[in-house]
Specification:
Largest interface: A-B, 33 and 32 residues
Strand content of chain A: 15-25%
Helix content of chain B: 25-40%
Oligomer: heterodimer
Structural class of chain B: alpha+beta
CATH topology of the largest domain in chain A: Ubiquitin-like (UB roll)
Helix content of chain A: 25-40%
Number of helices of chain B: 12
Strand order of the largest sheet of chain A: 1-3-2-6-4-5
Order of helices and strands of chain A: EEEHEEEHHHH
CATH superfamily of the largest domain in chain A: Beta-grasp domain
Shape of chain B: globular
CATH class of one domain in chain B: Alpha Beta
Number of domains of chain A: 2
Order of helices and strands of chain B: EHEHEEEHHHHHHHEEEEEEHHH
CATH architecture of the largest domain in chain A: Roll
Shape of chain A: globular
Largest sheet of chain B: 5 strands, antiparallel
């Protein structure tokens, strides 16, 4: 994706210029200071994969990665993200191929309604990248900020563990031959 | 949320100047200007119309993010270092693991990645009635009355409360900082000063809207941990209604040191979830000093710490829960078996 500029539709006299890198693409647009990163992503950039659940940092449906770290985009004013690198669920697939976590969620039937899934996968992506959770208990604790009201937790944990274990296998040294 | 003026500061002096001017221009200084860091508490409260600041001063670009060792052997935690960065820092994990444990027991990964150390200290001391604008709250509107009294009080204070407010401070980090004798560095229009953690937060008294002793336009710049290795005997035992992402009903932080004969040379205990601030009782800690740790003594310490505890009905159970939690936490710390926050079974 190339660089593009989104013009303000709701010209707000208090709007400030905000520049972000969203899923690898540079984005510059004027943003009113009361706009959250979540609303910016969904309403201005049409990246509606990120979901608004509680809008109060309690459910995790709005989880995105800012400079690689999962945060609640509903509690972050977009003007404070100026200069940041943002990754949403739309940014995980590459060349039309779902990433390992997305495939594992499908393989393990790790959702029913799917509303929490983008946030779950963004959290899980950070978990795998950070390498600080390895056991089921650690995965559940790391992801306790992502609620699933369908109760798909066992399968979500299975999916994340599957990817963690495949990662661990890949990192083992080649056996001597 | 209400509309507000947004200012972005590049350094500490500019941030304080902006806050000072915003306060001076406002008819009433309460709630007129707020520093914005991670925003995890403030933005949420603004969405609820509980906080209605006229001016937000974004301090995220201030150079206060470092965690650095001090010449005296202590550790300086920058006010803008995130809670996650602090908990994961190798020196914190090695020498001050009670802090790491406390932080990791609080909130969620997403919130800890955004919340800062200064913001954690300055999150509002609160209860569900503070959030509910349909009920009266002396913290929101001085003199309005307290919706919690006569209401649902499971989460409320058993110590240090007043007829004006029975809310508890929900910070886990502050409880650990209390046993570490941390010092809060602040900068304001009158210059810099240092506030011992024990004196940072306030009891509600007749001014429950004041959560802490910061003066107008004062900004937390860092939290200093004193030198020392507190890794041998510590625990952060947090008891709550859910196993993760819930405020403490009762939390107990303990650090202690033992001499070669096994006697306690230094003991510090703080309670969370029970008062408007982290609760320490030096007289109770003194009961253990120079003595060998032993369950009967732990029971005496617990009783002394809970002197004057009063339940409101729904939270009466917290007094007995706190008593048992103090004894258990002292056993964990004395035996060098701290509470795990992934294996939730009480050790």
């Amino acid at each position: 994706m190339g660089s593009h500029t989104v013009l303000s539709r709701d010209a707000d006299p208090g709007a400030l210029p905000v520049t972000l890198e969203v899923n690898g693409a540079a984005v510059s647009l004027p943003v009113a200071p009361y706009v959250t990163l979540l609303d910016l992503l969904r309403e201005r950039l049409q990246l509606t994969g990120t979901k608004k659940g509680c809008d109060h940092g309690q459910c995790g449906a709005c989880t995105v990665l800012v400079d690689g770290k999962p945060i609640n985009s509903c509690l972050k004013l977009a003007v404070t993200a100026d200069g940041a690198r943002v990754t949403t669920i739309e940014g995980l697939a590459s060349n039309g191929r779902l990433d390992a976590l997305q495939r594992a969620f499908i393989e393990h039937d790790a959702f029913q309604c799917g509303y929490c899934t983008p946030g779950q996968i963004c959290s899980a992506a950070a978990l795998v990248a950070e390498g600080i959770a390895f056991t089921r208990d650690e995965v559940r604790e790391y992801m306790s900020g992502n609620l699933c009201r369908c109760g798909a937790y066992p399968n979500i944990t299975d999916a994340v563990m599957d990817v963690l274990q495949r990662d661990a296998l890949q990192q083992q040294p080649e056996p001597d031959t | 949320m209400n509309r507000f003026d947004y200012e972005r500061a590049d350094d500490v002096a500019q941030a304080i100047g902006l806050a000072d001017r915003a306060m001076a221009n406002a008819a009433e200084s309460v709630g007129q200007a707020r520093f914005l860091a991670g925003g995890t508490n403030l933005v949420d409260l603004m969405k609820e119309d509980v906080e209605r600041p006229r001016t937000l001063i974004d301090i995220n670009r201030l150079p206060l993010r470092a965690i650095e060792e001090l010449p005296d052997g202590g550790l300086r935690l920058g006010a803008l270092a995130t809670n996650a960065e602090t908990a994961d820092h190798p020196v914190v994990r090695a020498r001050y693991p009670v802090l790491s444990s406390a932080i990791l027991s609080g909130a969620t990964r997403q919130l800890r990645n955004a919340a800062t150390n200064g913001g954690n200290l300055n999150q509002r001391t609160r209860c569900c009635y503070f959030y509910d604008t349909a009920t009266p709250c002396n913290k929101r509107t001085p003199g309005a009355g307290c919706g919690a009294l006569g209401g649902f009080t499971r989460m409320h204070a058993i110590l240090g409360a007043s007829e004006h407010c029975v809310a508890t401070n929900p910070s886990d980090m502050a409880v650990a900082l209390a046993v570490l004798d941390a010092r809060v560095r602040v900068s304001g229009p009158q210059g810099e000063r240092t506030i011992p953690l024990a004196d940072y937060h306030r009891l509600p008294g007749d001014q429950p809207w004041r959560d802490n002793n910061l003066a107008a336009a004062e900004l937390v710049t860092a939290v200093d941990l004193p030198p020392g290795d507190f890794s041998a005997h510590y625990t952060y035992l947090k008891l709550r209604d859910r196993l993760s992402y819930a405020f403490a009903l009762v939390a107990v932080a303990v650090v202690l040191a033992r001499d070669d004969a096994g006697r306690c040379t230094d003991v510090r205990i703080a309670l969370g979830g029970v008062a408007h601030k982290p609760w320490r009782v030096p007289d109770a800690e003194a009961l253990l000093r120079a003595n060998a740790p032993d369950r009967a003594l732990f029971e005496q310490v617990a009783a002394r710490m809970l002197d004057g505890a009063v339940g409101l009905g729904d939270n009466d159970f917290k007094i007995e829960l706190a008593r048992r939690a103090i004894v258990r936490a002292l056993e964990q710390a004395a035996s060098g078996r701290p509470q795990s926050h992934t294996d939730k079974r009480i050790a």
